[in-house]
Design the sequence.
């Protein structure tokens, strides 16, 4: 899980930028509503069948207006990677670290 605070951007614009960013990373919206979305990348069934050979990531992204000119964005992993064993769990940790870096540049 990580949290970034953004200033000088509207919530709608931030939501759009996050969606565009995650789309370029291969994520698709699975569930939720504006401001609280679940994104998924890969195939869960294939991950269970073939383990770490198939990548699967699921994250939740929540944007909250905390002050008139401040928006908090919280990203949480919704999967542990356990179905891919130790390699799968490390893949999830690496993906979250990479997303943390990318979200700093929004």
Sequence:
């Amino acid at each position: 899980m990580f949290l970034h605070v953004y200033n000088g951007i509207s919530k709608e614009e931030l939501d759009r930028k996050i969606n565009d960013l995650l789309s370029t990373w291969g994520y698709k919206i699975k569930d939720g509503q504006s401001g609280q979305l679940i994104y998924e990348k890969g195939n869960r069934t294939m991950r269970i069948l073939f383990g770490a050979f198939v990548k699967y990531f699921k994250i939740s992204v929540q944007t909250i207006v905390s002050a008139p000119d401040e928006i908090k964005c919280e990203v949480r992993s919704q999967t542990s990677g356990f179905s891919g064993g130790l390699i799968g769990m490390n893949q999830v940790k690496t993906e979250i670290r990479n997303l943390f870096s990318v979200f700093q540049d929004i």
Summary: The helical segments are 11-24, 44-50, 85-104. The longest strand covers residues 56-67. The mean pLDDT is 92.
